[in-house]
Amino acid sequence: MVGAMSTTRKTKSVEKGEYAVAWALLKAARQAAKLTQRQLAAKLGRSQTFVGDVELGRRRLDILQIYEWTRACGVTLSAYAQQVEAMLDALPKNMPASVRVPKPRASRVEK
């Protein structure tokens, strides 16, 4: 059809399935530290909504924010990065964005 709108939608980088690994590990770090979203938010000087948005993948963090998050949870940035790398390496190549990544166990977060 000429002039018809395409139904193809460009996927934002934040919607890629690989980001689910990073979000799940940040949430796992918080849970392993036995912190509620509200408690972590207070440590970060942020709102509970900020923490929730990160864990739901609605907000991306820069490296310094990830450092602050992991430090507040008692996890080193390098331990977090190693976990992200190991999980991403285990994913199939060209994973569709719609694939849900299994949540890691909270006990896997190194301190």
From TrEMBL:
<dbReference type="Pfam" id="PF01381">
    <property type="entry name" value="HTH_3"/>
</dbReference>
<feature type="domain" description="HTH cro/C1-type">
    <location>
        <begin position="26"/>
        <end position="80"/>
    </location>
</feature>
<dbReference type="InterPro" id="IPR001387">
    <property type="entry name" value="Cro/C1-type_HTH"/>
</dbReference>
<dbReference type="InterPro" id="IPR010982">
    <property type="entry name" value="Lambda_DNA-bd_dom_sf"/>
</dbReference>
<protein>
    <recommendedName>
        <fullName>HTH cro/C1-type domain-containing protein</fullName>
    </recommendedName>
</protein>
